[in-house]
Each structure stands twice: as C-alpha cells, then as structure tokens.
Please model this.
Amino acid sequence: MQEEQAKRPCRVRHYVLATPDKDFVCNQLYDFLQLKPTPKRDGPGPTEAFGFTTSMMRVGTTLIEVVQPIRKPHQLHTFFEERGGKDGGFMAVMQTYDAEALRNRATAESLKFAMDMDFGGQRLMQFNYKDFGTRFEFYKYTPEENWWGNPLTGPYSDSPLAQEIVGAEVAVEQPTDKAALAARVFLARQEGSSIICVDDRRIDFVAPSETKLRGLTSIYLKARQRDRAGDVARIANVDFKLV
Amino acid sequence: MTLIRHDISRRAVLAASASALAAAAPVSQAATRAHQPFGLRVARIGLAAPSPGLHTTSLALRNVAVDVLTPGFDDSAANEAFHVASLAGHVVMLDGGDPNRIAARAEAAGVRLFRDHTIGGKRLIQLDPAVFGVRFETARHRMTTASVLGDAPVAGLVAACDDPEHAAALAGAILGVRAGRKAIDLGACRITFTRPEAGNGVRGLREVHLDASKAGYGPDVTLAGVTWRRG
Model:
C-alpha cells in the first residue's frame, strides 16, 4: 500500500496570487469569473498569525487563493520587491501522497526545501522558487480530498465562465531542464521539451521575458462556452487564459 | 494628442440590484416605465453577451446607449461582484480610444486597471473605479450595441468620487481629453466629478443630464440609483 502511495503522481490543488490589495484582486477575479464573492468568516483568519490574510475561491475542483501581507518584514514583501513592486502569481500548491518519497526524490536531485514543517497538522514541503521558477508547495493532505480551503464543502459558487483550471505557465530560466527536473521530482509526465502533465493538468515552463517575469505567469481555464476560448484577463500580472 | 474623437459615442452602463428592482417588477418593465417621461425607447432586452449571468435592458438615446444590467441570480452578495453594493451607475464606456495607450498612461499615472481583458483578440480595459467613482472603459472594438437610437442627446454625466479635482486631472491626462477643475470634456458630453452626497456616501454614476434645449421632457426620474434630468 505504502509503495503504491509513493508512486502516485502528485496533483495540483490550488494556485496563489500575492498582492498588496487583496480586495481589489478578489473583485477582479469575481468580476471575470462571474463568481459570487466567497463569504468572509468571522474573526481572524487562520493565516493572520503568519503575517498575511487570505481569500479563497474555486473553479471546478481547483482553488485560487489571494494573499496579502499584513506585517513587515514578510516574505510576501520580498516577493514584491524582487518584482519591482508588482503583485503576481506566487505559488502552485500541490498534493503528494507520500511525503517521505517526495523528500527522497528531491534529495536525489540535490534539491533542498525552503520549508519542511508541520502546518495545521499537515506536512508542508516548499521548494525554493529559484529551483522551478515559482514556489511549488507540497502537502500530504489528510483527509486526502478536502483539506486547505475545503474545496469539497467550502462556501463557493460555481463559475458560469469556466469549468476547471486545467493548467498553468511558469517562467523560469532554462525551462527545458526545469521541466525535466519537475517531471522526475513530481512524478509527472513530460510532453515535449518543456511541458509536464500532473494528473490531468499541464504546466508549461517558458523562458522569462520583459513582460513575463520569473514566476507563475498564466493560468489556463476550460471555457464553458467554446467561443470564449482564446479570451484572456490579466489579473495581478497573471494571464487567466480561457482554453 | 486627443485619442477620443469628438463624435465619440458613449454608453453608460447602469447596474441595477436584482433585489431592488425585481421586488417591484421585472427590470425590463421597471426600466421601460422609468424612462417614459424622457421619451426614450427600449432598444433591446436580453442577456448581456458575453456574460450569461447578466440580463440587460438597453435604452436608446441619440449619442449614448444605456444598458441596465441585472445579475441573473437574485442574491444580494452578487451585487458586490458587480461593484453595486450601493445603487449607482458603474461603467462609462468610451468608444474610439486606444486601450494600449490609455493603459500605458494609466500605469505611468499609478492608476490600476480593474479589467484588462482580451476578448476576441481585442483589448478591453477599465480604469480603477476607486479613483473616478466609475469604471471608464475603452476597447478596440465599437461597443455600442443599441440598434435603435433615440432622440434624446446626453449632455452630461455626474460621477461621485472621493476627490473630484484629482479625478478630473487624472481622467484628462489618461484619456487624453480636455480637463477642467472638476470635469472632463468629451466633445458633446461633459463628465463632472462630485463628492458623494452627505449621508449616503454613494460613489458611482449618479446623474445623466439630457440636452435642455429639447422640449417635452418630464420631471426628473431616478433609475437604478441614477437621476435623469434636463441638463
């Protein structure tokens, strides 16, 4: 059983945008995705002790999280400073089914985690963003299907615009090498030179450019109306592309 | 350099709360009744493409099309998504501008884009309503949807925002039009910025002024939080 878990490919659970103005970005997302705003919970949120506030929304089975720092110093401020003050795509959150096996694969590739700790009763392991272009943060979820953000039971509306988040793009130097490395470490399938498929989702690695700073640069959404395929909304310097 | 033509057509989009209007009558009926004193005609009633969640009623004027939008789901939370927590007009669409140049000017001025969309290969942008009270929108394609235009020319719009002088100066610089102390000039139509009324604090498009030289207008009427009056 344990051996089977170790071989299960990792899975994309949600994407994180970082911004100094969470309400503005959330309203942009609600507007584009035609979502009802996620109700705010009473009292301080679970992340405020860690120096940031967070809001979640869902498209299909994938969550979008928007985070805003509330104190200095904070790694989110460092993220903004490295991008000339701009907000942007901050992280891809993944699920592993065997934390120890992931750790062993990372060690075999001489990769070190920026964080390897317990968080909320879960094991959290975050790769250094310089290794893959953006932060890939892994959790071994318990329960397996419904943990952070409660994707199955949370108070989310369904987007009339998009069915599911089916992929993402990450800008990073040497994208071909990074894709091959990610495929080995994440137990993903490599397609072409710089695309990996994680479960039924894809991640494209591309070279950074003047308009695409290193990091999470695009999110692909499956449009419910086929004639919307090709339309794009730029939100927090991330292109939300309907496919 | 003027980016917006003097014969520019404009469409003001008034957002209506489903709960407010649907309580008395379907929005289309309410809109029809409300604009009768000004002799306006309903040009189109239907779903707002490409947003299947919105119903729209388009009113026909000579130089402006007005859409009354209603969220297709009756949920008060939905209004937040359309920035209509308080009833007021929320978008003023400008035809003829260059979205790329306006976006570049906005960025240089430190004004964010609420929308930066590419639809059908063409760019559509909206400026941050926190600055102007309304979202100024410009797109590569002509936005006017009303197929029938009426006889009532719009002479002016009034938008409530926190700092009218700052809004006028920024709007003039970003849109590339002449700006006065608290207003911008879009050819035949003037947009005046004002502070929110004491007491209600509502920001957004609050008044539409119709050309006073045209006879036959009735008394002022308020539709979806916007007062229509002779200019």
